[in-house]
TrEMBL record:
PROSITE patterns: HTH_CROC1. This is Helix-turn-helix transcriptional regulator. Residues 8-62 form the HTH cro/C1-type domain. It holds the Pfam family MLTR_LBD.
Length: 259
């Protein structure tokens, strides 16, 4: 079992910081950082959290550091659909509704969909029922041949983009289950990803449904200063039309739904 000093050293190396870098950022001496990492000094709970904050350690792992250091966890993990996070859930629901007629959804740290707006529903028509059983994994939904994969025109490019994004996420916050998903579904293929046109503001996902192409790009929104593990690990994925034709499709579909 690792000591708290060994775990802090792992996080420091993961962030590619020297002991001096961390010491300056945390306003402590480099000698003290060295003593903590080697186990010759037992850090207080506040010191553990001060160092963890400078290392951008996820809240879940900060709790682990505290436990290993002999202290009680500081951060709760409440369900998003529970009373304790009602205000945050309502805020997210408003964001999702406000984004209609364009699709938006909320994913957790393993890319499971925990909330979505009505504009997502048409994309799920024809998806194999077992892929829609909770928890619905967004990566599996998008890349499984029984999911959205047959409708994604630039599938190789999307797969490469997802692989890069999840690889960066795992570098920041390792997770065995997400790593397994990445290995299963995002292994590099022999096909080469295409190059986006210079006019694109972001690399789009290009869907084809019944002869119509929809071009979408996405943005990611997270909570700025979460104190709950659940909020620390969720993100809102919002999709926008990448051209006028795609925008017109969503606007017409929304008008038809309201008629």
């Amino acid at each position: 079992m690792h000591t708290v000093g060994e775990l802090l050293r792992q996080w420091r190396r993961r962030r590619r910081l020297s002991q001096l870098d961390l010491a300056i950022a945390a306003d402590v001496s480099a000698r003290h950082v060295s003593l903590v990492e080697t186990g010759r000094s037992n850090p207080s709970a506040d010191m553990i959290l001060r160092l963890a904050d400078q290392l951008d350690v996820p809240l879940r792992e900060r709790n682990r550091l505290l436990l290993v250091g002999g202290f009680a966890p500081r951060y709760a993990e409440r369900p998003l659909d529970g009373d304790g996070l009602a205000a945050a859930r309502d805020a997210v629901a408003r964001v999702l509704r406000a984004h209609e007629p364009y699709p938006a959804l909320v994913i957790d740290r393993r890319w499971n969909i925990v909330m979505s707006n009505r504009a997502v529903d048409p994309f799920l028509a024809g998806v194999a029922p077992d892929l829609l059983r909770p928890p619905i994994n967004m990566v599996r939904l998008g890349l499984d041949p029984r999911g959205l994969a047959p409708h994604i025109v630039n599938l190789a490019e999307v797969r490469a983009l997802l692989r890069g994004r999840i690889t960066r996420q795992l570098a920041v916050a390792p997770d065995p289950e997400l790593a397994a998903i990445c290995e299963e579904l995002l292994a590099p293929g022999s096909e080469e990803a295409g190059h986006p046109a210079e006019s694109e503001i972001a690399v789009p996902m290009i869907f084809r449904f019944g002869g119509r192409e929809l071009r979408l790009f996405s943005t990611t929104t997270t909570f700025g200063t979460p104190m709950d593990i659940t909020l620390d690990e969720v993100a809102v994925e919002s999709y926008y039309p990448a051209d006028a034709e795609s925008a017109a499709h969503f606007t017409a579909s929304d008008a038809h739904a309201e008629a």
